[in-house]
């Protein structure tokens, strides 16, 4: 199936830094799949509210979840939300303060967060979320029971209205600053990696760390 | 000077996961000082909008900046904003899917973003921002000129209304799941570090990477 390009609406059209805009669906998927957490923004009592939260992607659907009692989940359910997933790749040192920047991959999604309540659909969405956060864990750990399902709100967000921005490479300085040659310029990369797994102290000592944890790619 | 504890208002009072709430001003400062970018949320045309952006802290003031033409900056100036700084420290693998979590340090600030236009104050705020993003750079690089200052919007946000949440340590599973002993549980730490500096290709080859870049702590 051919997937369409991102079709910007006015609010998902990148106004600044257009040269960093990417309109390829695959780029959106790649940013979402590479991130671990998102920032979910809602309007609560007329004011903006943004909180970090977990997510997972299945095709053109982004799943978000949280405690059923959480203020943000209640404020988000059935209303307009905005979700950002940001990967910081480096600090861009320029010759002029004005041209300092960061290298990054950024996805911003707008849409209505629709509560998912049908049991099979909810289990599916939670599986997607869990497998995004911790691949291989859904079949390894105990599945949610009825009480736990009730205590969890699952929201689905369509990925139709989204924008992607990516910046990479060296600083963009003015010719005069390059010619002056008075400052260093370049990129200091930011790298993320896994540390050594830290087993729960309540585990029996002879339990090995499973492969889905030890072999997790970044 | 003794700084007061964080004094929660209704919207900055942590409703869920209260056990992870921290009300120490020093904890707020530590999270903000450890982060590199924030997520700035505003209400634009009645809908939430969240974007990643740079910031810097000076005492009880958080500075944000962006292009003067940026939609977010225009929407944020003089109005309620919400800013989140999130540090992801690890993935928490639990024995039950329901108890999967992340270890993190999170700060959320509410307030009115006040434009800073007085030239000396603006230069000060931009210095704070630049030194947060790239310590040692303000005195190394060329300062902003009048045109660049005009092209930059600087916003100041008071840190009075803020909340901090920190989760660390192993998963919190139910006793029955611990006793069943059928799944591995523990934390897979997430580590961030600097890569090797990548000099701008336009630099003369004999220019050494300066100490404020090579010696940057994490």
TrEMBL record, chains A, B:
Transmembrane segments in this chain: where? none
| Listed InterPro entries | Pyridox_Oxase-rel (IPR024747), Split_barrel_FMN-bd (IPR012349)
Pfam families from the xrefs? Answer: Pyridox_ox_2
Specify the protein name. Answer: Pyridoxamine 5'-phosphate oxidase family protein
């Amino acid at each position: 199936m051919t997937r369409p390009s991102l079709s910007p609406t006015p609010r998902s059209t990148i106004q600044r830094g257009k040269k960093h805009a990417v309109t390829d669906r695959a780029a959106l998927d790649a940013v979402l799949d590479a991130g671990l957490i998102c920032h979910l923004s809602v309007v609560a009592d007329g004011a903006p509210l943004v909180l970090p939260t977990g997510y997972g992607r299945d095709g053109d659907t982004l799943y978000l979840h949280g405690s059923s009692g959480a203020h943000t989940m209640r404020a988000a359910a059935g209303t307009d939300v905005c979700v950002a997933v940001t990967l910081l790749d480096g600090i861009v040192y320029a010759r002029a303060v004005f041209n300092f920047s960061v290298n990054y991959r950024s996805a911003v999604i707008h849409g209505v967060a629709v509560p998912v309540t049908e049991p099979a659909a909810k289990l599916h969405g939670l599986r997607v979320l869990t497998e995004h956060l911790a691949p291989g864990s859904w079949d390894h750990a105990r599945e949610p029971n009825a009480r736990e399902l009730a205590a969890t709100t699952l929201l689905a967000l369509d990925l139709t209205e989204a924008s992607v921005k990516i910046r990479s490479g060296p600083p963009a300085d003015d010719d005069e600053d390059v010619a002056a040659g008075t400052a260093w310029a370049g990129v200091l990369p930011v790298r993320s990696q896994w540390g050594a797994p830290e087993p729960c102290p309540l585990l029996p000592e002879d339990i090995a760390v499973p492969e889905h944890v030890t072999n997790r790619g970044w």
